[in-house]
Amino acid sequence: MSTKEKISEELLLEEEALEVNEIVLFNDDVNTFDHVIETLMSVCDHTPEQAEQCSLIVHHNGKCTVKTGIYKELEPRCSKLLEAGLSAEIV
Questions:
Q1: pLDDT tens for the 91 residues of the chain, in order
Q2: How many CB atoms lie under 10 A from the CB of residue 48?
């Protein structure tokens, strides 16, 4: 096995070891579409189109994954969503 292959294999193993989590946004009867869209754009760095699509998915399906990543990067974003009055959790 060459050094390059060994390094590539080690990187793949490290990537698998990092557990990927998701922020799931839940539907509510309180927040407006505009508020949800603006919050997703500012907190989750969504484009206007992404934020609108997520808000529609949440409205119709009751929930939607709005961001994926490692827990320590998602936690402050989820906290900001909650502070904005949205219902979200990290799974």
A1: 566 666 666 666 665 567 899 999 999 999 999 999 999 999 999 999 999 999 999 999 999 999 999 999 999 999 999 999 999 999 9
A2: 11
Domains assigned to the chain: 20-90 (3.30.1390.10)
Question: Which tokens sit at 80?
Answer: 């900001």
Contacts of 25 (CB under 8 A, 6+ apart): 36, 40, 54, 58, 63, 64, 65, 66, 81, 86, 87, 88
Give the C-alpha separation, 56 to 27, whole Å. 10
